[in-house]
């Protein structure tokens, strides 16, 4: 799937002039694409301003050419792709690429590991890839790389785990902080630090994430449900025994734009006495 997306992206870059036309292609060039966002470089601000009004049309042309939803948004940048210049130094070969060739032991390991594959072409390709990986791992060990403590992949020196396992550990820590805050919404940062040794920013991010998730389940006017009270405790750090109706009404009133709109809540409100609330259109019909 990744190869298909890369092929479509390169197809768009190669046929850029056919997609947008020669006049636009002369002044606007595609730079890169990240997460379905296409970055363009225009030679003048006038062209970038003009194409912002044509953004939807330009996206439809690109997606229509590659026959899939490849681009969802367009941004403009001053970054220009520069061609790589390889400096050749005759005195030392520091700038020359290092080619790692498999040795006899690597080839033997690859043959024994891939010997069960029946197709000859597939077996040879697998043996070449396996032998190259063994040679690369041996070279990494010489440079000080060691085995990851979680998954067993070689990771650079100075780190106990690889990048993927480090990201998984951060996600587990965030989940643990979120569960602790949800269990005790009025807990302070000092209490969280004693358990997780997290930064104030990490604790605040999980608190805000809980407020956002709970606000999707609370309707406007609801001030008695458990989720509504948890939102107030997360915002004010007040324990349940110190919550008052005035405080709940004040906090949820400021957050009314983030809560679920409930038309029935407005119907239940009592109209103030002494005034007659009549829509103008019915009043005009009555006069006629």
TrEMBL record:
Record keywords: Iron, Iron-sulfur, Metal-binding
Biased composition (Basic residues): 267-288
InterPro entries in the record: 4Fe4S_Fe_S_CS, DciA-like
Record region (Disordered): 266-288
Domain of life from the UniProt record: Bacteria
GO terms, molecular function: iron-sulfur cluster binding; metal ion binding
Keyword Iron-sulfur: yes
Record keyword Iron present: yes
Protein's UniProt name: DUF721 domain-containing protein
The organism of origin for this protein: Schwartzia succinivorans DSM 10502
């Amino acid at each position: 799937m990744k190869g298909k997306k890369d092929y479509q992206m390169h197809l768009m870059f190669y046929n850029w002039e056919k997609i947008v036309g020669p006049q636009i292609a002369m002044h606007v060039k595609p730079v890169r694409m990240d997460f379905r966002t296409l970055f363009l470089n225009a030679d003048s601000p006038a062209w970038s301003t003009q194409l912002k009004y044509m953004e939807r049309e330009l996206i439809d042309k690109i997606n229509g050419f590659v026959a899939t939803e490849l681009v969802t948004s367009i941004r403009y940048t001053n970054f220009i792709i520069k061609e790589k210049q390889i400096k050749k130094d005759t005195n030392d070969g520091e700038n020359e690429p290092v080619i790692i060739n498999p040795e006899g032991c690597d080839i033997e390991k690859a043959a024994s590991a891939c010997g069960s594959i029946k197709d000859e072409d597939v077996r040879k390709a697998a043996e070449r890839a396996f032998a190259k990986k063994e040679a690369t791992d041996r070279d990494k060990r010489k440079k000080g790389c060691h085995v990851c403590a979680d998954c067993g992949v070689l990771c650079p020196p100075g780190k106990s785990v690889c990048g993927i396992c480090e990201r998984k550990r951060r996600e587990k820590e965030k989940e643990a902080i979120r569960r602790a805050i949800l269990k005790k919404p009025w807990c302070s940062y000092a209490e969280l630090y004693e358990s997780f040794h997290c930064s104030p920013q990490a604790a605040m991010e999980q608190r805000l994430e809980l407020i956002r998730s709970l606000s999707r389940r609370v309707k406007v006017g609801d001030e008695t449900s458990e989720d509504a009270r948890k939102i107030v405790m997360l915002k004010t750090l007040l324990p349940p025994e110190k919550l008052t109706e005035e405080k709940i009404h004040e906090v949820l009133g400021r957050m009314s734009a983030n809560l679920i709109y409930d038309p029935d809540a407005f119907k239940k409100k009592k109209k103030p006495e002494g005034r007659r609330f009549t829509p103008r259109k019915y009043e005009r019909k009555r006069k006629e």
